[in-house]
Structure formats: structure tokens, C-alpha cells
Amino acid sequence: MLFALPVVSPTPQLLPAPKSGLPGFVGRPLWKEARSIVELKNLRQSTYWQGENFPQGHGRPALLMPGFLASPRSTHALHHIMTEAGWLVRVAEVGRNSGPAHRNVDTAQRNLHELADETGQTVTVIGHSRGGQFSKILAIRSPNAVRQVIGLGTPMRVKYPSFFVMKVPAEILDKAWRVGVFGPVDKVQEDATEGMRFLAIPDHIDLVSIWSKTDGIVDWRLSLEPGAANIEIDASHLGMLSSIAGIEGVATALLRQTTLDR
Questions:
Q1: What's the distance, Cα to Cα, between the start and end of the chain in Å?
Q2: Domain membership flag for residue 4
Q3: 126-185: per-residue pLDDT in tens?
Q4: What is the mean pLDDT of the chain?
Q5: Residues 104, 87: Cα–Cα separation, whole Å
Q6: 107: exposed, middle or buried (C-beta count within 10 Å: 0-12, 13-18, 19+)?
Q7: Which residues contact 25 (CB under 8 A, 6 or more apart)?
Q8: In Å, what is the CA distance from 142 to each residue of 184, 201, 202?
Q9: Which of 19, 84, 95, 245 could disulfide-link to 24, CB 3.0 to 4.6 Å?
Q10: Domain membership flag for residue 175
Q11: What pTM did the predictor assign?
Q12: Residue 87 covered by a domain
């Protein structure tokens, strides 16, 4: 069965402002995140699960980055489908993607170069939420090793969205690991890494942002960024990597890169 892929649309010249104040703090449709279980079930029952109707990798490398506090298991569905479709897939060894940014980016950068050296090819880096922010940093730090950056549900313009479910624990943990509660921190490296979070990536690297207006965690407006290809889907935040809509979004992004390579 073939699915209608999402349309890549240009990022608007005037970016819409995210909700602020009390609406931004409490106003996300969090209850819609409960559908992530059904999203995964539907994905497993689709032809995508066998790698069908998905861009064939032919051994091309891809590095996956989980979201904030998400385990590597959160990438399992996308990893499985891309592997079935012939991609060589690795998950960045960042654990639950917590702790200082520079540690996780350093680890992911090592994984990136290992994969690039192993295949002799540039790597497609796909990150969920915070993982998408770190994927951009990898492109800035290692521009010759990255082919494309795809962010799903990634806040492109702020470090943490204002929604309390993410903002409160994120800021508490951020302060805790900055003072060394979870081990020593190189504050110089941390500041340098943070300074790259919102820089533009090199022009030769394709940046794609996949977002959903029904994302219960990240305000979709924060996922729009000048210079990025803009793909709207209908999925929960948790289901970005494990829903038919999310897989279609990634498929669209990968097909876009294939076209740009011609």
C-alpha cells in the first residue's frame, strides 16, 4: 500500500511567534500524547514496517539521536524500518540524552566520524526534539561528515519550550548538571557547545524540520527556522519516530536529499 507523502513547503518569511506567558506554560495538547501507543501499533501493521515504500538506503549511513531524557529504544521503530530498507543505521551513544550538552555532542560526534569512516560516505543525521538540536551542532562541528540533518519535533529557536512538562524538569536538570551534580563539567566547552545550538548550518547541508500542530510537548511554531525545509505531519511528539506520519515525514526528507544530489 502506498501512502501520500507530506508536502515540503517553504518556511514563511515572517515566523509566527509561539505562545507565551500562561498559555505557553500550560497550553499544549498534552492529552494527545496518549495516542503514541496506537501510532506505533498502526505503524507495525503498515507496509513501512517491512521497509516497503520507503527510500532505499543501499548501505548509506544514518545516525539517530534520541530526544531529551529518551532512551535509545525510542528510536527503535525508525531504526528497524531504515535497516529493512537497506540503510546502515546507528544510534548515538548518548544514553537517555541527559546531562551536559558538550558530553553528548562529543560522544555523538565520535559516533558520526566512526560511521563516516566505516562507510566512506557522509552521514544523514536524524534527531528527535533535543536530539535535533544536537544534530545541527554536529553539522556545524563536522560539516564534511554530514549529508543531511533531519529534526523531528525539534525546537529550533529556543533551548527549551515554555511548556511546563518540558521547561520545569529541563531547567532543574540543566542547573544541576552545570554545577556538577552528575559529574564534572567543562564549563568552557559547555558554553561553546551551547553557543552553536542556534547557529545556521553550512549551506551545503540540507536541513529539514518535521513538525506537528498536534505535538503535545513542543509548540510547532518553534520548529520553523529560516533556511530549513518545512514538513508538516499529524503526529504526537512521542510518536514522531514511531508513527506512520513520522515515517512519511522522514521518507519525504530523504527523497528530497536524493533529488538535491542529482
A1: 27
A2: no
A3: 999 999 999 999 999 999 999 999 999 999 888 887 787 778 888 888 888 888 777 788
A4: 89
A5: 24
A6: middle
A7: 162, 163, 164, 167
A8: 25, 10, 10
A9: 19
A10: yes
A11: 0.91
A12: yes
Q: What is the span of the domain harbouring residue 109?
A: 31-223
Q: What is the pLDDT of residues 7-39, one digit of tens each?
A: 676 566 567 776 777 666 677 788 889 999 999
Q: How many helices (H) and strands (E) does the chain have?
A: 8, 7
Q: Please count the structural domains in the chain.
A: 1
Would you call 231 helix, strand, or coil by DSSP? strand
Question: Residue type at 233?
Answer: I
- Cβ neighbours of residue 46 closer than 8 Å, sequence gap 6 or more: 1, 3, 244
CATH number for the domain spanning 85: value is: 3.40.50.1820
Domain-embedded: residue 52: yes
Sole residue written with cell 515554555: 162
Smallest CA-to-CA distance from 191 within 96, 65, 100 is with 100
